[in-house]
Each structure stands twice: as C-alpha cells, then as structure tokens.
C-alpha cells in the first residue's frame, strides 16, 4: 500500500472515558435534543438558526463567539432556537487546505489526528458546560449536517440512519435534488452494516431532512436554490415521496447560495422568511437557516493571527450577525 501507518488511534469510547460528561451536561444535551426533534416534527414552531464559523479553528475565539450567542439566545428564545455551528472536520473541494480541528488542532503545526480527536471532544464539552449549547457539526452532538461532497457516500447515509439527532443532507455540488432526496430516504430506513468493526442494525432516522446550499453549473458558476421557485420545487419533491417522515429543509445562506459572499447572507435570510409568508406548505417545510458567522468579517490566511476571523470561507462579522438575528426574530 502506498501509505505509512503511523499509529493505531484510540476508539471513540475510550476518548469518552478519558473525557466524560457530567450528569448535568447529559441532562442539558438530552433536553436540547428533544426540543430540536420537536421543531423538525412540527410540535414546536420555533425557527432554527445554525450559526457560527465556517471552521472551528481556535478554541478561545469559538467559545468567545458562542458566549455572545448565549446572550442573544435569551432575548429571542420565544421564537428562535440557536444551534452554534462548530465545524471541526472540513472536506475540501480539491483535498488541499486546512481540513479542520480533527486534522490540525494547531493550524500552524503538522497534522496530529489523536490530538485532533481530543481537541474536538474538549471543545464541544466546553461549549456545553460553559454556555449550555449543544452544537452543530458533521457527525457530532446536537445537530448533524452531511456536506455536499459527502451526501452520496454510503457510509454517511448508513451512519445517519443510526443517529437519534436530526441530520441534514445537503444537495450535492451539482444541485441535483434527487441525490439529496435519495440520501434522505436511505437515512430514514433501517439498515444492517459494519460500523467501527461491529455488525450493527440501525432503526432509521425520521428526522433526516434537506439542506439547500446552492450549486455549481457546468461552467463553474455559483447558482442559488433558496428562491421561492426552488422551495416550491422542493415541496413537490417531498410530495412525491410519501414514505418520508417529517418533511423539512434548512436553507444554507452561504456557499453557492451567496457565491461565497458572506454579506449576502443578510438579504438571503430575509428573502427566505418572506417567502414563507406566501404559501403555508413552504412555511411548514422551512425549519431554519444556516449562517456562517464569526467575530470578524471576512477571512484570513493561516498565520495572519487576526482573532476571531475565519481561516477558511469568509464569514459575517459579529455586529452584523447580532443585528440579523434580531431582525429575523422581528420578522417571524
């Protein structure tokens, strides 16, 4: 094989024993998980905001950001349920670039997967302990999003079918709705498969749903899919899939929907909410928004050292983000 075997990594169960959660942390996690499920099932009419940095590259600035969110959450809690976006594993379009905390807990140092696993565990536990937030990640804790480059992967679909938290399936970079819908169908069904050396039997995840994030055409141009017509089309796709439970969509306001211009997220968020007012089926389907936001506007290169500024995709800064959350609450 054309690879070097460096060391055998510890299994997740062992890391959990090394860094255990307290009973209080488990209680908060379970309560938030139940509330999130209620939103996707329609028992609660709260609006979800999955908001935070493109990548969680620095524990101090990420916790600082989440603490700011905590204060805002208290002011809008009657209408909005905030799930901090803490993404620690970054699939890259070409495979190059910063791949997240899992690979490089220190973006300026060499990759160290074990330190990365520990850093992720500690970051999510610190967020839960100090802020009371369970967060969104790709295969962790309070909310799970399967990215545009992973949505066709069989292991992601099978694993999602065995989770008890809502899982969002993004449309692929091609924009093909049928791929996304097939992933949702697969994840809502039961399966038998191999997981970490075990033969397992999943029960199916009825809270698996769609995420619209825009797409790229054959010329490499970014095209959106958050407009009214796109939401009507998704309603029709769900209408054709009578076997799917809890029809739902989260709109990703960045990525191809904004052409990676983070400042467009303000306009896009407001357009989506306005669209929900014209048709009851759209209002029922749209459960929330995903927004890329950090302390500082924009992005920087690794090593530039600006506190709270993204080292991957550009983000909306804190002041604009805070104002947007209050505006969304007023529109709901």
Which descriptors apply to this entry?
single chain, 332 residues, alpha/beta, TIM Barrel, 8-stranded parallel sheet, two-stranded antiparallel ribbon, 10 helices, 12 strands, globular
Task: Tell me what you see in this structure.
The protein is an alpha/beta fold and 332 residues long. The protein has one domain (28-331): TIM Barrel (Alpha-Beta Barrel). The chain has ten helices and twelve strands. The chain has helices at 12-18, 23-41, 59-76, 113-131, 154-160, 177-188, 228-240, 264-275, 280-285, 318-331; strands at 47-52, 80-84, 136-137, 143-146, 167-170, 191-195, 198-202, 209-212, 215-216, 222-223, 249-252, 286-292. The strands form three sheets. The protein has an eight-stranded parallel β-sheet, sandwiched between helices. A hairpin with a 5-residue loop joins β9 and β10. α3 (59-76) runs parallel beside α4 (113-131). It is globular, with a radius of gyration of 19 Å. The N and C termini lie far apart (56 Å). The mean pLDDT is 91.
């Amino acid at each position: 094989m054309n690879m070097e075997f460096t060391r055998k990594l510890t299994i997740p169960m062992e890391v959990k024993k090394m860094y255990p959660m307290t009973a209080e942390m488990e209680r908060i996690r379970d309560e938030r998980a139940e509330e999130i499920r209620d939103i996707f099932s329609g028992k609660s009419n709260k609006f979800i905001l999955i908001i935070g940095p493109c990548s969680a590259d620095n524990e101090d600035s990420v916790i600082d950001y989440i603490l700011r969110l905590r204060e805002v959450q208290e002011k809008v809690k009657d209408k909005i349920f905030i799930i901090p976006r803490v993404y620690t594993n970054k699939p890259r379009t070409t495979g190059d670039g910063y791949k997240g905390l899992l690979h490089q807990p220190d973006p300026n140092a060499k990759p160290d997967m074990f330190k990365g696993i520990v850093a992720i565990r500690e970051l999510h536990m610190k967020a839960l302990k100090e802020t009371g937030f369970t967060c969104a990640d790709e295969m962790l804790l309070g909310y799970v999003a399967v990215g545009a480059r992973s949505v066709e992967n069989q292991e992601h679909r099978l694993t999602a079918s065995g989770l008890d938290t809502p899982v969002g399936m993004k449309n692929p970079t091609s924009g093909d709705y049928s791929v996304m819908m097939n992933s949702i169908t697969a994840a809502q069904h039961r399966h038998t498969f191999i997981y970490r050396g075990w033969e397992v039997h999943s029960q199916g995840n009825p809270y698996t749903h769609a995420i619209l994030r825009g797409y790229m055409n054959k010329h490499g141009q970014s095209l959106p899919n958050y407009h009214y017509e796109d939401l009507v089309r998704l309603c029709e796709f769900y209408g054709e899939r009578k076997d799917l439970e809890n029809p739902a969509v989260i709109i990703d306001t960045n990525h191809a929907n904004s052409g990676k211009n983070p400042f467009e997220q303000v306009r896009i968020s407001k357009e989506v909410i306005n669209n929900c007012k014209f048709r009851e089926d759209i209002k029922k389907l749209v459960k929330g928004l995903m927004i890329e936001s950090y302390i500082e506007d924009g992005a920087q290169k690794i090593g530039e050292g600006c506190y709270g500024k993204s080292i991957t995709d550009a983000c909306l800064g804190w002041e604009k983000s805070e104002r947007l959350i209050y505006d969304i609450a007023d529109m709901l």
